Amino acid sequence: DTGVSQDPRHKITKRGQNVTFRCDPISEHNRLYWYRQTLGQGPEFLTYFQNEAQLEKSRLLSDRFSAERPKGSFSTLEIQRTEQGDSAMYLCASSGEDTSYEQYFGPGTRLTVT
Amino acid sequence: AQSVTQPDIHITVSEGASLELRCNYSYGATPYLFWYVQSPGQGLQLLLKYFSGDTLVQGIKGFEAEFKRSQSSFNLRKPSVHWSDAAEYFCAIRDAGNMLTFGGGTRLMVKP
After folding, report:
1. Are B89 and B101 in contact (CB under 8 A)?
2. Over chain B, what is the mean pLDDT?
3. Residue A106 pLDDT exceeds 70
């Protein structure tokens, strides 16, 4: 078990470009979460999957944000037409049925929009 | 809606001294509470959790936390701080929908 992994770890993009981040959860974890963390703040919940079903997406920050988990394994978070205000750390977490109260976090993807 | 407040943004303690980090929450039902630690460039690591039962919970790295319903608090403590404990600490509450709501964090600095 290698833990939650995220790719890339860092992304620099120009305003207006689209970016996509990937998260691989702990194997056999059926729940996957995305959070955003801006400098000096705690993480902020974005969305949540149980298997391939996206059960909560009302917290996605705008319609420029979307997430998928097509086969119930890895997930992607896409931001379209990036803005400077999107610069943040994007964190992924996963949890399993037997430890569903415990979310295990990946190292995050740091996005810088120039 | 639930909320978590960590009143202290920064705390500095001397190595070997005791530590208490404050966390206050607002939630209408029985809370599920967590403390996470984040070192620079690292993800969040779970230190301990409270669901029910004994209000004093033990975690990893020598940390403990006490749930006090009457004060809506879940303070984190350690009897003797090590230099490696310098990091940012987050208190969080889980709602019925599995979403974690985090406090703003407390940055701990340890003086030699």
Report:
1. no
2. 93
3. yes
